Amino acid sequence: MVEREQAVHRIPEVLRDSGWTVCLVGEEQSGKLAQVTAGLRRRPDGSGSGKLITSGFSYWGLESTVAWAHACNDLYYPVMRESIASFSRRWRGMGELLPEGPLHYVSLGPGTGQKDQALLRSLDGRGRCGCYIPVDVSAEMLRLAQREALQHLHVPVADVLPVQLDFSLPANLDRLSTLIRRTVGEEPVVYSLLGNTLANFDSDTQLLALLGEKLLRPQDRFLLEVASTAGQDEPAARAAAQEYENSPRFREFVTSALMQYTDLQIDLNSITYEGLVEDDRALLIKVVYHNRTGATLELTLPDRSTVPFPDQDTIRLLLSRKYTLSGLEKMLVDARLAKVGETHETGHTAFDRPAFGMALLLLQSGDAPRPGRATGPNPFGD
Ligand SMILES: C[S@@+](CC[C@H](N)C(=O)[O-])C[C@H]1O[C@@H](n2cnc3c(N)ncnc32)[C@H](O)[C@@H]1O
């Protein structure tokens, strides 16, 4: 009898037809639904600190993915648009700090995939492109990102491994780390967390520390992009919130999760964009939906259960930040990460506006030997 080739070995051949993409699903999606529901069942709170949609769920699903792609192109939401447009230039200097030879690239939250395309193109142009592993909570985002990232590049389909997974959970990172090591062996990996994604998490420092601890080996690098602020007072906080408030497309994005997971009749005038000063580390932006109907509403959740949404109660839709330079430095120390390189660009600001910018940092594990001061053989060849 002729031995039949296992189906999984035929996948690279199947993928030659560009209509197909693969995706490794790393966790039970029904469990995720229970997490959204739990966030919407929290106690009433008038200040936006009770019911909430946590970071990953703002992007999960088709509607949110499409709404995010639209927001990234909105002329009135310049933060993301400019960060995508200027990424190639800002990344260029970093490329020099990377090793010779093939590099594998793991993109944590690739979004629309435009930045991944710039990064992969620069590796591809130098013949250094290894595997590309985008990791996202949203399968739809992964498909979009993969298409965009690989356009006009020579990355073989068999070297592309999209993974659907929530990277904020320690157990998921253990599994992801095992998968990556099995795939690349001892060869170096560049991880990225771009587009100020870190700022969307309540416990941002803890998440960064977790990613460093679970993923980074001495030979790996971590590319982090965050929004920054030179001003740290209330007018600066208000200006930061206004950046989001001005964009109709961002409003559609930020309410898309509410549309998907509840039957709430959304009133766009019931959303507030609050800018706060978070100690001396950051400006904090909270996007909050308020029940201002004067009556208790009943929300039907995805499991068909209902939850009361009393008058004046709130649902936090999104959290973001702009970090001060000292706040950023402290976060790196607390997360045990060391800087290898950085670019920091400040946007054009009027005389009466605070200077906001984007910092792109190339990091390594704090336990790894520092380039140039290495005591043993350095895989990066400095
Ligand atoms: C702010 S967007 C950044 C997109 C892209 N990196 C950029 O700079 O244009 C955040 C991305 O991270 C993903 N994401 C957010 N939270 C996540 C989580 N907990 N686990 C996995 N992916 C997540 C979103 O789906 C989205 O693709």
Order of helices and strands: HEHEHHHEHEHEHEHEHHEEEEEHEE
**Which structural class do the helices and strands define?**
alpha/beta
CATH classification class of the largest domain: Alpha Beta
Q: What fraction of residues sit in β-strands?
A: 15-25%
Give the number of DSSP strands.
14
Find the CATH superfamily of the largest domain.
Answer: Vaccinia Virus protein VP39
CATH architecture of the largest domain: 3-Layer(aba) Sandwich
Biggest β-sheet: count, sense, barrel? Answer: 8 strands, mixed
Give the low-pLDDT segments. Answer: 372-382
Helix-residue proportion:
25-40%
CATH topology of the largest domain, by name, is Rossmann fold
Q: Estimate the global geometry from the Cα principal axes.
A: globular
How many independent structural domains? Answer: 2
Structural Rg: 21 Å
Number of helices: 12
- What is the arithmetic mean of pLDDT? 90
